[in-house]
Amino acid sequence: MSEQKRPRGMGHGPGHGPGGMMPGEKAKNFKGTALKLLQYMGRYKIGVFAVLVFAVLSTVFGITGPKILGNATTELFKGLVAKVSGAGEIDFGRIGEILIFLLAIYLFSAFCSFIQSFVMTGITQKVCFRFREDISKKINRMP
After folding, report:
1. Per-residue pLDDT tens for 91-141?
2. Looking at the whole model, is its pTM more than 0.70?
3. CA–CA separation, 11 vs 13, rounded Å?
4. Per-residue DSSP letter, 2
5. CA-CA-CA-CA torsion for 34, 37, 41, 45, nearest 10 degrees?
6. Confidence of residue 30 (pLDDT cuts 50, 70, 90)
7. Which of 32, 47, 88, 110 could, after both became Cys, cross-link 82 (CB 3.0–4.6 A)?
8. Mean per-residue pLDDT for 4-10?
9. CA gap 30, 85 in Å, rounded
10. Span 50-78, mean pLDDT?
11. Do the Cβ atoms of 135 and 129 come closer than 8 Å?
């Protein structure tokens, strides 16, 4: 099996990204571009605000899950210690309640994440459509 040599500059070596592409250029005026984008998205303020609220809720409930799971672990440990010492048993009813509550917390977190993704996808599609429409109008005005 003979080894083929590749021509230089075909995606190997420094300065080349994946697939032989050169790295992208940095924006010359990032702040100005970001402000223009925010102004362009101005009609979607309520949707963006809703996305932020659902993102915060999803994150908060996702973070509280392990704390609640820790309560179930503590309850299990207490019951195990009581059983070993002969003073009691593991309260599986209480552990079940904690785990059902934990399931509800995770389901609500997933629901918030889904709503966030759904609304943001809609906003993104509408903004992209407006971009394409505006570009098309501008090109059609050109001689």
Report:
1. 999 999 999 999 999 999 999 999 999 999 999 999 999 989 989 999 999
2. no
3. 7
4. P
5. 10
6. confident
7. 88
8. 54
9. 66
10. 95
11. no
Contacts of 98 (CB under 8 A, 6+ apart): 68, 71, 72, 75
- 29 CB-side CA count, 13 A: 5
Counting Cα atoms < 13 Å in the Cβ hemisphere of 31 gives 0
Nearest-5° angle of CA 43, CA 47, CA 52? 130
Q: What is the mean pLDDT of residues 63-86?
A: 93
Are residues 127 and 44 in contact, defined by beta-carbon separation less than 8 angstroms? Answer: yes
